[in-house]
Amino acid sequence: MQPGADALRPLPVEFFQRDVQQVAQELLGLWLVRRLPQGLVGGRIVEVEAYLGYGDPASHSYQGPNRKNASMFGPGGRAYVYPIHSRWCMNVVTDTGKVPWAVLIRALEPLLGVELMAQRRGTNHLRLLATGPARLCEALGIDRSLDGWNLTRGQRLWVAQGDGQRPSPEHIVRTPRIGVTAAQDELLRFVDISRETFLSGPRHLHRSRMPDPQLRMRTSVRK
Asked: Which CATH number is 13-201 given?
């Protein structure tokens, strides 16, 4: 069934112009939507990771701007797409351009254009369509051509309101990020454990406890 116009409505830029950890948590339950020539594909965001810019040695923006990471230094609400092992990963840039924050979209629950996503991925296994950042980019046709794309326009690629099925606070869990080589212990991965089928990474990570909100890595603005 084709979702209604409200479900596909893009979020306003103000949503993204906030602290990266707040945006990361509130992205859970929203939809990532991609318009391909064959139709719409996408799904519910169920897993994300926050990257804190200058204060975070695991962030691509830690050493400052360059040609490859320039999109991280733009305004909130843009896409940052980067290559990894000949595949692609997609981030949502947050804040207003003063701090190079970004949220990596790690996994989706497929909801839109599932058959097309399966064709692109070469598998009919629902769990394998968008579980992991490179898989979801392949399923949605996200590549470097979308780096810097304005996610608030509702064209080509955007974050949508979705169907309102947001996770309750007790279902949002913070864990260490996956696959980073620095700041490995920082609890900056956010998952919706009510959609555990579609989460990536080791299952034991999904059950880590939400830490005290005071235990946050300090974000910093470069003067």
From this structure: 3.10.300.10
Across 52-188, the runs of DSSP E, i.e. the strands, are 79-84, 87-93, 102-112, 157-160, 172-175
Kindly give the pairing relationship between strand 189-192 and strand 157-160: unpaired
Amino acid type, 155 = Q
d(C-alpha 191, C-alpha 167), whole Å: 9
Q: Which amino acid is at 205?
A: L
Place of tokens 């909100």: 213
pLDDT attached to residue 215? 36
CB atoms within 10 A of CB 90: 27
Positions in the chain whose pLDDT score sits under 50: 211-223
Specify the pLDDT at position 149. Answer: 98
What CA–CA distance (Å, rounded) separates 146 from 172? 29
Which amino acid would we find at residue 118?
Answer: A
Tell the burial category of 132 from Cβ atoms under 10 Å away from its Cβ (0-12, 13-18, 19+). Answer: buried
